[in-house]
Write a structure and sequence with these properties.
- 44% of the residues lie in helices and 13% in strands.
- The protein is an alpha/beta fold.
- The chain is globular, with a radius of gyration of 23 Å.
- The protein starts with 7 loop residues before the first helix and ends with a helix.
- Pathway: Amino-acid degradation; L-alanine degradation via transaminase pathway; pyruvate from L-alanine: step 1/1; Photosynthesis; C4 acid pathway.
- Keywords: Aminotransferase, Pyridoxal phosphate, Transferase.
- Pfam families: Aminotran_1_2 (PF00155).
- Homodimer.
Length: 463
């Protein structure tokens, strides 16, 4: 099992960071810039005030009894905290139901219904989880019996999927996103890959779609989503919709539509698992480990197995549950907290859009580098034409893939941490790396400048 986002390059970054603390003048840079993972608050993003205020009161209810409470906390913060605590047994320090607190699942369901134009969400179809990654593990545990069971996964992919399939002994069936068509998903290619896997004796049980995309940053349009839904219906495979970046869409003319809404608008009821997280969006509360999965169209016996899996872990953490409820049911216009909430949300999203444009523009200015627009999510995934001499040297050494060695050299020269494309999968003979645009606008400017200098020197060395 491998997970490149926290692999050898990140380990080396930790060593260099420790070296900088001991001797700041010992390296050609003064700090490590973590562009390897979608971890917004680690690079300076401020938490959303409303969420933290409610979390504070649910963790320490005595604050509501203080004389200053009305001055410190808006009335809707206090009423929300009271509602949550009034529907929990023992507060945030006690176990909850295995699927999560019913009142918090209802808050999530209300948010899903509002997002999806009124399509009903039953709280019994909702599991609150310790992040979307745990939801993925629950599904893979339930799906995979042995190596003959397979899941279709996009390439490039987020390595959670290859790792979990390796862990549970299943088979990954790749389907390739088309880089020349803005990382588009071709349903005809899905059919080719499916038939090939079945001919090899594999039982393809699910199709995973990441929308908006990680690491590619693409955002699917509704017509493409309808094709995917029809494919799953025709072929009898479960659709796993990884939608943790649903708030992160930046490209003009693009917007997020959930697969649940597409399925319902088509009048269908195919088996569908959709996942959301508190870690991404504009909130970036990665450390809270909050998430949910909504399961639709599953046999009751399958849902019983999922409940059993959740029960083994007793329950998801309570702070993550509370936060997931707040993310899906935020302040509404007219609420005392709404103006600040909306201002914080809009400032973060507009800044992310500016950073995405600056980074992609900088990447496309480099010799031999091409990068599609970051339509959504938090990443750019540029293609790098590595010199043949360098590729031959890296291959001969056998220690690292050429793109991994490029990323290691970038780290040791600049302090910038990115992830090689080989950790996500890529078309054979091509080289990529993934970088976030989460660091501050000032830091992103520095990343672009340092990367340009490094890349020019690198190319000159290996001509």
């Amino acid at each position: 099992m491998e997970y490149a986002v926290r692999g050898a390059i990140v380990t080396r970054a930790g060593e260099l960071e420790a070296q900088l603390k001991k001797d700041p003048a010992s390296l050609p840079f003064d700090k490590i810039v973590m562009c390897n993972i979608g971890n917004p608050q680690s690079v300076g993003q401020k938490p959303i005030t409303f969420y933290r205020q409610v979390l504070a009161l649910t963790d320490y209810p005595q604050l509501m009894d203080a004389p200053e409470a009305g001055k410190l906390f808006p009335s809707d913060v206090i009423s929300t905290a009271k509602h949550i605590l009034g529907n929990m047994k023992g507060g945030t320090g006690a176990y909850s139901e295995s699927k999560g607190v019913a009142a918090l699942r209802q808050m999530v369901a209300d948010g899903i219904e509002a997002r999806d134009g009124g399509h009903k969400c039953d709280i019994e179809d909702l599991w609150l989880t310790d992040g979307a990654s745990v939801a993925c593990h629950h599904i893979m545990k339930t799906l995979i019996r042995d190596g003959n069971d397979a899941v279709m996964v996009p390439i490039p992919q987020y390595p959670l999927y290859s790792a979990s399939l390796a862990l549970y002994g299943g088979t990954l069936v790749p389907y390739y996103l088309d880089e020349d068509k803005e990382w588009g998903l071709d349903v005809a290619d899905l059919k080719v890959q499916l038939d090939k896997a079945r001919a090899a004796g594999k039982e393809v049980r699910a199709l995973c779609v990441i929308n908006p995309g990680n690491p590619t940053g693409n955002a699917l349009n509704v017509d493409n989503q309808k094709e995917i839904v029809q494919f799953c219906k025709d072929e009898g495979v479960l659709l796993i919709a990884d939608e943790v970046y649903q708030e992160n869409v930046y490209a003009e003319g693009r917007s997020f539509t959930s697969f649940k809404k597409v399925v319902r608008d088509m009048g269908l009821d195919i088996p569908l698992v959709s996942m959301q997280s508190t870690s991404k969006g504009f909130y970036g509360e990665c450390g809270r480990r909050g998430g949910y999965m909504e399961v639709c169209g599953l046999d009751p016996d399958v849902k019983a197995e999922l409940y059993k899996l959740a029960s083994v872990g007793l329950c998801p953490n309570l702070s993550g549950q509370v936060l997931m409820g707040l993310v899906m049911s935020p302040p509404k216009p007219g609420d005392p907290s709404y103006e600040l909430y909306a201002a914080e949300r809009d400032a973060i999203l507009s800044s992310l859009k500016r950073r995405a444009l600056k980074l992609v523009s900088g990447l496309n200015a480099l010799e031999g580098v091409t990068c599609n627009e970051a339509q959504g999510a938090m990443y750019a995934f540029p293609k790098v034409s590595l010199p043949e001499k360098f590729v031959a040297e890296a291959t001969a050494s056998g220690k690292m893939a050429p793109d991994a060695l490029y990323c290691m050299k970038l780290l040791e020269a600049t302090g910038i941490v990115v992830v090689p494309g080989s950790g996500f999968g890529q078309v054979e003979g091509t080289w990529h790396f993934r970088t976030t645009f989460l660091p501050s606008e000032e830091d992103i400017g520095g990343v672009v400048e340092k990367l340009a200098k490094f890349h020019a020197e690198f190319m000159d060395t290996y001509r």
